[in-house]
Amino acid sequence: MEKQRIKEGIERYLKVKHGIKLKDAKDYEIFNAVSLTVLEEIIDNWNTTTETYSKGRMAYYLSAEYLMGRALGNNLMNLGVYDEVKDVLSELNIDLNRIEEIEEDAGLGNGGLGRLAACFVESAATLDMPLVGYGIRYSNGLFKQNIENGFQTECEDTWLKYGEAWSIRKDNDIQIINYSDMTVKAVPYDVPIIGYGTKNINTLRLWQCEALREFDFNLFNNQQYIEAVSGRNKAEDISRVLYPNDTAEAGKILRLRQQYFFSSASMKDIIKKHKAKFGSDFSEFAKYNVAQLNDTHPTISILEFIRILIDEEHVEFSSALAIAKEFFGYTNHTILAEALEKWDIRLIDRLFPRILQIAYKVDEALVNELRQRSYDEGAIWNFKIIANDQMRMANLAIYVGRAVNGVAALHTEILKKTELNHWYHLYPNKFQNKTNGITPRRWLRLCNAELSELITDLLGSEDWVKNLELLKGLEKYKNDDKVLERLMSIKHEKKVQLAEYIKQEEGIIIDPNSFFDIQIKRLHEYKRQLLNALYILDLYYRIKENPDLDIPKTTFIFGAKAFPGYRRAKGIVKFINEIARFIDNDSEVSKKIKVVFVHNYKVSYAQKLFPGSDLSKQISTAGKEASGTGNMKFMLNATPTFGTYDGANIEIVQESGEHNNYIFGLRVEDIEKIKHSYDPKWYYRENPSIKRVVDTLINGTLDDGRTGYFEDLYNALLEERDQYYVLADFELFKKSQEQVFEDYKDKKKWAQKCFANLYSSGIFSSDRTIKQYADEIWYIKPAPIK
Ligand code: 26V
User: Fold this and answer.
1) Which residues contact 319 (CB under 8 A, 6 or more apart)?
2) List 521, 528, 594, 624, catalytic entry
3) Which residue in 92, 142, 424, 587 has a CA-CA distance of 20 to 30 Å to 245?
4) Mind listing the pLDDT tens digit for each residue in 463-475?
């Protein structure tokens, strides 16, 4: 893009959008103007891409969550205009970096599942794959987190407050959505997904819910102003907020409405496109279309799809079901029982009775099939879609799905062997593994320009950005002192930058010369932030006893949001913050260790944390973390993993070598063996270090402000039998961490571990994952535009 055009574009959009001249423009106005200038530039290619894709077979990614983060920097980089825009702005005395920083994160997701969807759409675009993402345009994304006196508090996320430059409202494609008690509009906002080094521009279509009418004119005339807009508010409520995963009864109706809302809108949109090409002939529908269900949240799409075919397109039930069986695939992201979605059928009946009727018919077809295969009634019960007055969404997705996949090798094995074993016996060929991945554009090229430059320098080209397996080519430098020194000096530079950012955001000063040990992820008991915290407390006591304890100066960094209603998780937040305060108040120990809990962990914060890390903490109870993707982001930024034998950690150390990482703790099969006899009180009695740290929860050492939080944690460990094996893994954790500190002393050896992680990370590109989905489930091919 020519610099002159960029400059003219910025000036033009400042004028028409904000009515001002450059000299008077605020940062957010400049952000809008730059974004619109780029958007204008890509529109033609975007339309051409949509048209090209519509001619062949297409995939649809259905996801209730997309954790996109910021768009500007990534889009400029992927288009290859970052430097030009930076130069133009700097000639105008504007710092592009500052403009990037004012962009609100699009936080339309809770965690790993939502971020995975974001990586996937970016990879599909980069690979010219004909894939459209469908989701919900929440007015308020994931809550903002504050820490007040060590407690988590939440407030609403208002990411749309300055308007949003990166999407286009498509009024021509509005769909009408019917509930038995209301009818609403689904308005699509299309977000361009800009791939790296390609002309193709893919689409993420996010539906916003609006009322059919702005307000009730008669009520308004009667001066009943609140009543006049209540219908509108009720409609807008549907796409107002992203649900944290834990919401109880009150929010359930709205959540089900949301799921149906975007499922129905997306199905209608796909069917409309099909009819534009083929009229009412659905015989070849599945030849041209395939949809992936990102967890069970969009699974009601299956029933809505069948409903439309039967009721509106006059297809027979058996044919409609047969088409659906070729159309949908299902990805499972967790084995946690409490996360498996089940809906009360009275709720379904109340909101969309026809959907329930369809569900019964699908269930009947399933039961017939099982009976034909001579399953007895007891066995059949496990498979049923409707049982105990509940609709089991996973059973629906597995029965109808053309494929069922887990997200890491171990996770898929667990699904096959235990959780979904009965289904695996019924349909062995449906089960597949698709180990997750991450996009190297955002998670290395963008967030770590310095390391990217070193890689490009050594490999002689930037091809690795699109073909991450090329990183293997770095291996030949593994004994090259100069290269290792450059790597470690880059790491240091990124730690300095992170320390500055933390100072700015948290008002906390940390030492970039200390060892940065980082655990960043959603807060959950199975992820065991508590284990890390108890370890740190033990370290505190050991330093107290022996001030000369030989460990490197270490900064332990945590970042995590707790679901607002998840009391125990909030207790852990408070516990970590109290440990931080406790250590800070000790003038001796604080010279050696420091704990920082960064507030409001989000995608843009993550982009600063991964590059500035020395150790990646991935310490979930074995068997519980389906994959993890943060683990891959650390690895790609040349940071060794300290983790359990769980999720994708296993594949990570397979690639980079156990000796370059720290694997500790009980494995799935160990837990299996001890689970019935496990007695955490034994560990508490027999191990004085454990007793010492666990007792801080109740002996007044640490104060939870009379909330009962800490006593609850104490009970979780000792009275509720420590469901996540924190105490069982404590000593093993400690030993492993000691090894880390020991190894870190040998600077060269440590650098080699970091480097090995970098050159072994190629397989964890989401490009690889998307290619596997494309080849093994979707059967789609790249369709580059001219
Ligand atoms: C859902 C819920 C809902 C009820 C309360 C507790 C709870 C805990 C976890 C979840 C997980 C929802 C699904 C999810 O986000 N899974 C994550 O998917 C990532 C992408 O595949 C994967 O890397 C993570 O390991 C997995 O936890």
Assistant:
1) 282, 309
2) 521
3) 424
4) 999 999 999 999 9
H helix count then E strand count, the chain:
33, 23
Q: Is the pLDDT of residue 135 over 80?
A: yes
Q: What angle do CA 661, 543, 535 make, to 5 degrees?
A: 45
Domain boundaries, the chain: 54-69+105-436+771-778, 447-672+732-764
392 flagged as catalytic: no
Q: Is 336 in the pocket of ligand 1 (CB under 6 A)?
A: yes
**CA 466 – CA 498 distance, rounded (Å):** 27
Does the Cβ of 626 fall within 6 Å of ligand 1? Answer: yes
Q: Is pTM beyond 0.70 here?
A: yes
Taking only the tens place, the pLDDT of each residue in 153-174 is: 999 999 998 888 999 999 999 9
Q: Is there a catalytic annotation at residue 768?
A: no
Tell me the mean pLDDT in the region 652-667: 98
Beta bridge partners of 154: 145
Q: Is the CATH code 3.30.450.40 the one for domain 447-672+732-764?
A: no
Does the structure show a pLDDT above 70 at 645? yes
Burial 249-258 (b: 16+ CB within 10 A, else e): eeeeebbbbb
Task: Kindly report each contact of residues 498-507 with a partner whose C-beta sits within 8 Å and lies 24 or more positions away, as own/partner.
Answer: 498/608, 498/609, 498/611, 498/612, 499/612, 501/608, 502/557, 502/596, 502/598, 505/598, 505/599, 505/605, 506/596, 506/598, 506/599
Cross-strand bridge partners of residue 404: 330, 431
User: What tens digit of pLDDT does each residue of 386-421 get?
Assistant: 999 999 999 999 999 999 999 999 999 999 999 999
Supply the residue whose CA is at minimum distance from atom 7 of ligand 1: 339
CA distances from residue 141 to 74, 100, 118, 242, 489 in whole angstroms, order as listed:
20, 19, 14, 5, 37
Q: For 213-260, what is each residue's pLDDT tens digit?
A: 888 888 888 888 898 888 899 999 999 999 876 666 667 889 999 999
